[in-house]
């Protein structure tokens, strides 16, 4: 099959049935969704594509830049998609702990702004720490979860249950 854009390969990842001799649990069918087979290597590809796709034309037209507090698989997926559309991406983070990840992001053309030594473990009771608020706002977004569940649930229903995918999800 011929694809015209790498984003067409996001999702529809293989579903592997784990043999009972591996998990040893009688009367259980166990499956693994191989999300690492997404083009940028992670389940984050789905969320990033789902969030960026509706606004890509507007971002291009406005000459805007994508900003995100990501430092790993999400950042790699954002950069890969943004580069397909000629959109600059900047990550603002204090969390890049592995030099190889940082080098990969820089090699991909990500602009990285590193924040000074804030702890990854914010005190949720500190009302004066703006990072607590920002972190909560960014991580509580249900959009990523809904996008992920709406695509992956349909794929699993199609693969395992051999019946049509649900038209809507009770989310």
TrEMBL record:
Nucleotide-binding listed as a keyword: no
GO molecular function annotation: cysteine synthase activity
Enzyme Commission number, as recorded: 2.5.1.47
Domain of life: Bacteria
Cofactor: pyridoxal 5'-phosphate
Sequence ranges assigned to domain Tryptophan synthase beta chain-like PALP in this UniProt record: 6-120
Pfam families per the UniProt record, alphabetical: PALP (PF00291)
UniProt enzyme class: transferase
Keyword annotations of the record: Pyridoxal phosphate, Transferase
Protein name: Cysteine synthase
Gene name for this UniProt entry: cysK
